């Protein structure tokens, strides 16, 4: 059964009273019971607990179309168990394509209706907000993070900053778990788009091949549905009154769209674009008017804001300039961070997008050893980069690894603007898996993009 109407979406998204009680119980320190497939992460050893002995397989879509906490717990257990015991080609045996279709349809209908900048503002004195950075298909670290932070609930909100797929071996499973949470608690879980939620990146860094491998003759269908879902992901969030989050970061002001003068036919279009040499920070009004439903955000033309939000990077050099290293997006300095915070009366920017490999090539900016860096400290507040994939990347061509920790941030009342950092180490050993891309040939920092292969859009 799929969600074919707004009423069905609301029914699937709204937990029942019993489900709300289950979510409350999930807030306890041990979210999974002893029979579950949860992973643990102590200071001495970072080993997963035994898989759930009898995960319910194959996963079926609820007859009434309403997801429950138990359904999601079982889904996570099934994916964990499958990653350890099944060949990737056997995933449809435990998660049939029909169930995939129902989940993605329900989630897509919810996501496509959200604004480019979602407002996480239904916050009370008992609320907390968990912000998560790049995940990159590291399923077991995602399971640990959810267990450690506590499951989403009516008072525990989650904002995920994108890059759910690519490079890791379980991008599809990770993304589907997050979609399930979105359908179950749409007003507590917010999924933003990362630069890897695109056709170009997924064709280069493994997600496309992962999906085709796992779903065989149905793989093209599954991949196409995922791309459609990516298009609907919001770009940014505003947490409370003072915190802005995005995958890449800040964005430029764009020239007004050309308008034909009223009156006589064939009158010339009046259009005075901003000089190309001049860049200035954009407004939230411009952000919300941008067209995000593009498979690959353009690096030229009039619709530049999505590319800026997903691809831009901070710099220690003052000013706003094109991001020549990536070939798309912007570089912005501490002065721009101050201008943005002051103009919109904000105190904190949380972005992601850069792992230890990228930071290795960024002089003047901190490394990613602990899963986060505080990049700019200015009069009005701070800019933070958050990365939630520890021991990244999963596949690496050299024996020497970064061994970085991952991290998530907790924002607490009353103002939700004072970040509490939670660093964690990778779950080891990871189940054995083969990469879905040529990691020895593909660069790890998203630099030097093959822009000619990216679809342009006006």
Automatic annotation (TrEMBL):
Cofactor annotation: Mn(2+)
Q: Which residues form the signal peptide?
A: none
Note the superkingdom of the native organism: Eukaryota
Which portions of the chain have biased composition (kind: Low complexity)? 10-31
Family matches, as Gene3D superfamilies: 3.60.21.10
Name this polypeptide is given? Serine/threonine-protein phosphatase
Keyword annotations: Hydrolase, Manganese, Metal-binding
Question: Does this UniProt record's set of keywords contain Metal-binding?
Answer: yes
Q: Does the keyword Hydrolase apply?
A: yes
Query: EC number(s) per UniProt?
Result: 3.1.3.16
Which InterPro entries does this chain map to?
Calcineurin-like_PHP, Metallo-depent_PP-like, MPP_PP7, PPP_phosphatase, Ser/Thr-sp_prot-phosphatase
Segments carrying the region annotation (Disordered) are 1-61, 255-277
GO molecular function of the protein, one example? protein serine/threonine phosphatase activity
Domain Serine/threonine specific protein phosphatases per the UniProt entry, residue ranges: 192-197
Catalyzed reactions: O-phospho-L-threonyl-[protein] + H2O = L-threonyl-[protein] + phosphate
- Residue spans of biased composition, Basic residues class: 259-268
**Which family does the record claim for this protein?**
Belongs to the PPP phosphatase family.
């Amino acid at each position: 059964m799929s969600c074919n109407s707004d009423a069905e979406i609301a029914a699937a998204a709204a937990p029942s009273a019993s489900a709300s009680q289950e979510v409350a119980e999930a807030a306890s320190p041990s979210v999974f019971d002893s029979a579950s497939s949860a992973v643990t992460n102590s200071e001495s050893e970072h080993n997963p607990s035994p898989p759930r002995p009898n995960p319910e397989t194959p996963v079926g879509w609820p007859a009434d179309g309403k997801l429950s906490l138990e359904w999601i717990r079982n889904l996570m257990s099934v994916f964990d168990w499958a990653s350890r015991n099944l060949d990737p080609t056997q995933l449809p045996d435990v998660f049939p394509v029909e169930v995939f279709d129902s989940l993605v349809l329900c989630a897509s209908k919810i996501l496509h209706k959200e604004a480019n900048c979602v407002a996480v503002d239904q916050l009370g004195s008992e609320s907390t907000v968990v912000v998560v950075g790049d995940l990159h298909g590291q399923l077991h670290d995602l399971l640990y993070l959810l267990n450690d932070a506590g499951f989403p609930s009516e008072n525990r909100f989650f904002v995920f900053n994108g890059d759910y797929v690519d490079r890791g071996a379980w991008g599809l499973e990770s993304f589907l778990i997050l979609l399930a949470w979105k359908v179950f608690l749409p007003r507590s879980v917010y999924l933003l788009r990362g630069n890897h939620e695109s056709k170009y990146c997924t064709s280069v860094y493994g997600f496309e091949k992962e999906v085709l491998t796992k779903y065989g003759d149905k793989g093209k269908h599954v991949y196409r549905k995922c791309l459609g879902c990516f298009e609907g992901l919001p770009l940014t969030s505003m947490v409370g009154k003072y915190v802005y989050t995005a995958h890449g970061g800040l964005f430029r002001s764009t020239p007004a769209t050309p308008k034909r003068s009223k009156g006589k036919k064939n009158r010339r279009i009046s259009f005075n674009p901003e000089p190309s040499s001049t860049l200035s920070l954009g407004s939230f009004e411009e952000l919300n008017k941008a067209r995000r439903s593009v498979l690959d955000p353009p690096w030229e033309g009039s619709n530049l804001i999505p590319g800026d939000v997903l691809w831009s990077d901070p710099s220690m050099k003052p000013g706003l300039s094109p991001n020549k290293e990536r070939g798309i997006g912007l570089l912005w300095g501490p002065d721009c961070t101050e201008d943005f915070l002051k103009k919109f009366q904000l105190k904190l920017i949380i972005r992601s997008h850069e792992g230890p490999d990228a930071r290795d090539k960024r002089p003047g900016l901190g490394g990613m050893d602990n899963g986060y860096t505080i990049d700019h400290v200015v009069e009005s507040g701070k800019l933070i980069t958050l990365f939630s994939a520890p021991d990244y990347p999963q596949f690496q061509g050299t024996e020497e690894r970064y061994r970085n920790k991952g991290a998530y941030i907790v924002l607490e009342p009353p103002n939700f603007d004072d970040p509490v950092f939670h660093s964690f180490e990778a779950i080891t050993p990871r189940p054995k898996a083969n990469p879905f891309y040529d990691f020895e040939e593909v660069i790890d920092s998203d630099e030097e993009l093959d822009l000619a292969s990216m679809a342009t859009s006006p």
